[in-house]
Design a protein that fits this description.
The chain contains 27 helices and 23 strands. The strands form four sheets. A seven-stranded mixed sheet has the order 10-23-22-21-11-19-20, sandwiched between helices. A seven-stranded antiparallel sheet has the order 13-14-15-17-18-12-16. β19, α22 and β20 (581-583) form a beta-alpha-beta unit. It is found in: Cell membrane; Membrane.
């Protein structure tokens, strides 16, 4: 901060540098090529909640596998059309159709055979199409290649779409930044940025690092990070994130995190993990595919060799039925039942600001029976606010708040920052405090103009002494809550936060009890050893908390709260949010024990937390979900999924989406198995024609994939 102040002072005090800096600043504001329109155009490429159908169709046609499949289909139709007139040319075009449509799948099948020494469905389909061609069924073989390539292209599109929705953020990674050093502006790599650096971000540019706006105002498109559809206004003191798009105004930004520690850097790591992991069900299917493929090949060879010897079939009849069986019994639809579904579900979740580190966690979250929330920073905002200020008759409200804020100004404790923030809101001056020191068992004290002010906990040792002194006094002094600082003859006035009238109470102990029952934390203030007043603070509930709990309860999911806070405060928050299971006074290891107990009692547990102290519980839960914006780096690293926009109301939606994905997988698998059994039985009992087998089998594969792609919506 000192460096920034010196830099700004140097820019403003030196006439030449000031002039140059102002010119650059004005040029940035009036940048002709980068303004609001360009910012909107640039942000249009970021993942958002809505995507046009035309754009999706265009993207599908741009997929290389889709182009090859469609090319194969067009050539198949041309060859079929000219076959009666130009037989030789027709065969040549068929061969070209085989090559264009089947090359990718044949390559994958051969690689599996050579590298893994295993069979897969790709090799089975290529073998079946070539077998059909050898007995003169060129069109049927080409149709098999076309439909198989089309189904593969659809699956490839699902994978590509999922990766694009998750990792399109990588394209937004800034490469350089404009850093202000000694009044000069230098272009540096973002890897060289350090906390405390001052940057200039021009209109339409990407924010290069996480930071705080030091000067200027603008709107920021944060959809790439938070999923918010509308730009957010930012001014001095507001937080900004790397990878977001600046709007019309130029901003001076003070860097708060290095490139590796930024929220954007954490997202990149999440993307890499998400793209590398597959669900357990898919791993099983991949193992099953190899075994099943061997069985199909074995039965096919048995039909070709054994049927003429045992059943008296002709070789052509046996080979034809074997090729039909090879087509209809291949597990294409079965293999495609899982990954397109999971990838589509992960993609739609990513667009709503929920990133999963792998499909396995999407599978697990579908079985959630209990959602366990950490309280502070998850159900609540994690930043306490001053709600009540109560003063003794000898002290005015402004005097008490100004003095306490002056003493607490250098402290980084959340309660201290809340008091300083309240004083700032009321435009009260901060005075110079001397001899500021922490008092063990109480809080903090300091001297202002020779007067000693002490601030501390309700259960502190100094407060205990003050309580005894007050009990010894016979004077009955009235405490008054007053927003103006004027004591109104001990009569009730309005509270600063909740506008509730409080009757004047001579019994300060009753006042403390009432405030504690409201879930508030109380700080006691004394001046020169005399009781001066109380300041009550409370962590405010997230706006979405009540609705989030209601949605989860309506789905049959129990909601628990795990907190290290006191039971009384925890019960107040639980009562206001509707949480049914409350566990308070928990240390980090106690949270782990409680999560394990919930798993034993109810089953799958989703733990939602934001702090370092939540990391063990996140790891112990079936699925751990970290808060992306407010969460610590440790919590995000340990978590299996990250709520990038901190909107806990989306948790119910993602559980519902995961359950929908699970149902879709089951429907796909039953449908695929039914089609395989029906076509296989029909081949031997009713003499199914090869074209019908091709259409039935590959058609079922396409239907299964399209059914999975529905979850993209």
């Amino acid at each position: 901060m000192a460096l920034i102040l010196n830099t700004i002072w140097a820019m403003q005090s030196d006439e030449n540098k000031t002039s140059e800096g102002n010119v650059i600043y004005m040029q940035a504001i009036h940048q002709p090529l980068q303004g609001k329109q360009q910012a909107k155009q640039q942000s249009a490429h970021t993942p958002g909640p809505k995507r046009g159908k035309k754009k999706n169709f265009r993207a599908m046609l741009q997929n290389k596998e889709m182009q090859a499949a469609l090319g194969s289909g067009i050539m198949m139709l041309i060859a079929w059309g000219i076959a009666p007139y130009f037989a030789t040319m027709s065969v040549i075009i068929y061969i070209a159709a085989y090559g264009i449509g089947g090359w990718t799948k044949a390559k994958e099948g051969v690689e599996t055979l050579v590298k893994d020494r295993d069979l897969d469905v790709n090799l089975l389909m290529i073998a079946a199409s070539l077998g059909a061609a050898t007995i003169g069924y060129w069109n049927e073989g080409a149709m098999l290649i076309f439909i198989f390539a089309l189904s593969g292209a659809l699956e490839s599109y699902a994978t590509e779409r999922s990766h694009k929705d998750i990792s399109s953020l990588l394209a937004l990674k800034p490469e350089t930044a404009l850093r202000i050093e000694d009044g000069q502006m230098n272009i540096v790599a973002i890897e060289d940025l350090q906390p405390g650096d001052l940057l200039l971000v021009k209109p339409g540019e990407l924010i290069p690092a996480d930071g705080v706006v030091y000067r200027g105002s603008s709107f920021i498109n944060q959809s790439s990070i938070t999923g918010e559809s509308m730009p957010v206004d930012k001014s001095a003191g507001d937080e900004v994130y790397a990878g977001t798009v600046n709007g019309e105004g130029a901003l001076y930004v003070e860097v708060t995190k290095s490139a590796e520690g930024s929220l954007f850097g954490k997202i990149i790591k999440l993307v890499e993990e998400a793209q590398a992991e597959v669900p357990d069900s898919q791993r099983f299917m991949e193992r099953f595919e190899g075994i099943y493929a061997r069985i199909v090949v074995g039965v096919t060879l048995l039909v070709i060799v054994g049927a003429p010897l045992l059943l008296g079939w002709t070789w052509n009849e046996a080979f034809y039925k074997a090729m039909v069986f090879l087509v209809v019994a291949s597990p294409c639809a079965l293999v495609s039942s899982i990954m397109p579904v999971m990838l589509s579900a992960m993609s739609s979740s990513a667009r709503r600001g929920i990133l999963f580190k792998g499909g396995a966690h999407m599978e697990n979250i579908a079985h959630t029976r209990v959602v366990a929330f950490d309280k502070t920073g998850t159900l609540t905002m994690g930043t306490p606010k001053v709600t009540d200020i109560l003063t003794a008759p000898s002290v005015s409200r402004e005097q008490l708040l100004s003095a306490v804020a002056s003493v607490e100004n250098l402290s980084m404790h959340p309660l201290a920052r809340a008091i300083v923030e309240q004083a700032s809101k009321e435009n009260l001056p901060l005075q110079e405090a001397e001899h500021v020191q922490s008092i063990t068992g109480h809080g903090i004290q300091g001297s202002i103009n020779g007067v000693v002010w002490k601030v501390g906990r309700l259960d502190g040792t100094v407060w205990a002494q003050e309580k005894q002194t007050m009990e010894e006094r016979e004077a009955t002094e009235t405490l008054a809550v007053t927003p103006t600082g004027e004591l109104k003859n001990g009569k009730a006035v309005e509270s600063i936060a909740n506008d509730v009238l409080v009757n004047g109470e001579a019994d300060w102990e009753a006042v403390c009890t009432r405030l504690e029952q409201e879930g508030k934390t109380i700080s006691v203030v004394t001046v020169n050893g005399e009781f001066a007043g109380l300041i009550a603070m409370r962590d405010m509930i997230r706006p979405q908390a009540v609705e989030a709990v209601k949605k989860l309860e309506s789905m049959g999911v129990k909601v628990a709260m795990l907190t290290g806070d006191r039971a009384r405060s925890a019960s107040v928050i639980a009562g206001e949010t509707g949480v049914s299971l409350v566990y308070a006074d928990l240390l980090p290891e106690d949270k782990v024990t409680q999560v394990q107990a919930l798993r034993e009692q109810y089953g799958h547990v989703l733990m939602v937390g934001d702090g370092v102290n939540d990391a063990p519980a996140l790891a112990a839960a079936t699925v751990g979900m970290g808060m992306g914006l407010s969460g610590s780096g440790t919590a995000i690293e340990v978590a299996d999924a990250v709520l990038m926009n901190d909107n806990i109301e989306e948790i119910a939606w993602v559980i519902g989406q995961a359950r929908r994905a699970e149902r879709t997988v089951k429907h796909n698998m039953w449908f695929a198995i039914t089609v395989i059994l029906a076509l296989s039985a029909g081949n031997f009992l009713q003499d199914i024609a090869l074209p019908l087998g091709v259409v039935g089998h590959e058609g079922s594969t396409i239907l299964v994939i399209l059914n999975g792609l529905r979850l993209l919506r």
